[in-house]
Amino acid sequence: MNVRIEETTMSRAAGDAANVSTAGETAASTIRLTAAQALVRYLSAQRVVDEDGVSTVPLFGGVFAIFGHGNVAGLGEALYQHRDALPTYRAHNEQAMAHSAIAYAKAHFRRRMMAVTTSIGPGATNLVTAAALAHVNRLPVLFLPGDIFVSRAPDPVLQQVEDFQDGGVSANDTLKPVSRYFDRIVHPAQLLSALPRAIRVLTDAALAGPVTLALPQDVQTMAYDYPRAFFEPRIVRFHAPTPGEEELEAALEALRQASRPVIVAGGGVLYSRGGADALRAFAERHGIAIGETQAGKGALAWDHPLNAGAVGVTGASAANALAHEADCVIAVGTRLQDFTTGSNTLFAQARVVGINANAFDALKHRATTVLGDARATLATLSERLCGWQASPAWTERARALCGAWRETVQSRTHASLEPGALPYDADVIGAVQRSSAHSAQGDIAVCAAGTLPAELHKLWRAGRPGGYHVEYGYSCMGYEIAGGLGAKLARPEREVIVFVGDGSYLMMNSEIATSVMLGAKLIVVVLDNRGYGCINRLQQACGGAPFNNLLDDCLQGPLGAPSIDFAAHARSLGAHAEHAADIGAFEAALVRARAADRTSVIVIDTDPARTTDDGGWWWEVAVPEVSTREAVRNARAAYEARIAERGGHNAGDDGQSG
């Protein structure tokens, strides 16, 4: 281990001896550290078994930090001392660096993670959006924002948010609703209980999400005699519940009564070590097709005969047809959000068996619940189902639908464009996948909000777990580039392709500079449709007039809407960048980007109106009950008719499928 941690110098040994605890402890049993030093030392000591199942690696891959007042003196000094064992990464935006940390955990299937530290004011509140994203997506990240003085000697301190009714409130309290565990460290000794609790939450399958330890700036610098044993290297064990006998029996009964089952695979399959293999074995043994959520895509190879593709609002026609006709839906590791369930209309007639480590998610849709890890639960159920299988006719129909959908994907991503026509998302996705044919490690596709996640969910061919990295639980614009950076730090051997619209690019692009600084090469594909094309289409599908979404439909000054040179902007951040005039030029640019030594940005103009019509399902978006506009009144009438049906199939023709 690095000498910075072992403290081998005589001066450090002498310092330890001079700071023996007055409680009768010996120099060998305690060490005097500041709270910040103790925190960093503890994080550095946490280890996990690597993917090879033999060696160990640090639980924390590093700390993203933007220093300011409230964290630079205390935590900053501690991070400097341990910089070799726990790397510190400087970023350009607090929300973005938190997104990168979250993406790092997602790319490691929640088995490794990162911490994030900020100053006490704007830096701390900039974490709130990222914390909500991690909370919704069940992804672990440790937030270490600076805080006000516990002593209140300088009161109010710079950036302090003062509450007129509660003197104990600070900006960090905004993180409470979006943290799975929150603690404010008001004495150095509190770390002895707070840190193990934090690690437990971060590594528990049912609890995983953001943890916040607010660090008052004076407490960070206070010294305390800590037990040396607290900092001994420790292998962290991950926790998931074991399914109970009564739950297993209820699930087995439900499955034995089913003849038309379908599986909905969520992110929990990927986060369960060996979950993808158990899922494939279960499906093959019992003849059941699989539909994948956004978080679960990649759990089964795209060309597997039982992979029915994406399920839900942005789903494939095969998966949605099977889910709608099924008499039993086996929901594995999914939180069953409305894009998966079609606003609770897609498989409303089916009995649901919910397999999940989290009881809150397992209970949804009035499911027969089994609390447990995906791998272990599927293996147990499969063993005890003996010779049970889906109806042979149902399995054969599923295979036919799956095959037909693969042909649909091929045709949509390899279509010829009319001369002069702008490409749309499917054309770009197809070009990227053609360019990845010779990628030995396989690309990682990263995306977040807008239409692109819908198109990728339907059309991206994920060949292995982790090759599809789309944040759609919180659908957060601005995640894309920062998330790509986190994925690249986690998987440096793989090419990371970031798909981002011009709207999201303008919202958060600063981590292009960070990727260049760190040598973490990305390929960023910017699809420029001059505005928020997805919401523009949804607006009109709800009867609204084109308004305030595409740049040409916005309030403008005398100079009109800007003409933005995204390639020039990316070059100013240190990246290679170019604008591709058409798909042919785009494919040539991809070749150069793959060969480049740094982040490359490729910009291509795309059609803001066109989407993939195949697949999709109804999504409930409330339409105004009263309006002076006829188009809105007509949309309201259609909305009320759909509500009355509650289960009618919509193949994406109302524009509300993403």
From TrEMBL:
Q: Which segments constitute the Thiamine pyrophosphate enzyme central domain?
A: 248-381
Q: Which gene encodes it?
A: iolD
Family membership:
Belongs to the TPP enzyme family.
Q: Supply the Pfam families for this chain.
A: TPP_enzyme_C, TPP_enzyme_M, TPP_enzyme_N
- A cellular-component GO term for this protein: acetolactate synthase complex
Q: Does the keyword Mitochondrion apply?
A: no
Write one Gene Ontology MF term.
3D-(3,5/4)-trihydroxycyclohexane-1,2-dione hydrolase activity
Q: Which UniProt keywords apply?
A: Hydrolase, Thiamine pyrophosphate
Protein's recorded name: 3D-(3,5/4)-trihydroxycyclohexane-1,2-dione acylhydrolase (Decyclizing)
Query: Does the keyword section mention Hydrolase?
Result: yes
Superkingdom of origin: Bacteria
Regions crossing the membrane: none
* This enzyme's EC code(s): 3.7.1.22
Q: Where is the Thiamine pyrophosphate enzyme TPP-binding domain?
A: 449-604
Query: What PANTHER family does the annotation carry?
Result: 3D-(3,5_4)-TRIHYDROXYCYCLOHEXANE-1,2-DIONE HYDROLASE (PTHR18968:SF9), THIAMINE PYROPHOSPHATE ENZYMES (PTHR18968)
Originating organism = Trinickia dinghuensis
Where do the Thiamine pyrophosphate enzyme N-terminal TPP-binding domain residues begin and end? 63-160
Q: From its record, what is one biological process in GO terms?
A: isoleucine biosynthetic process
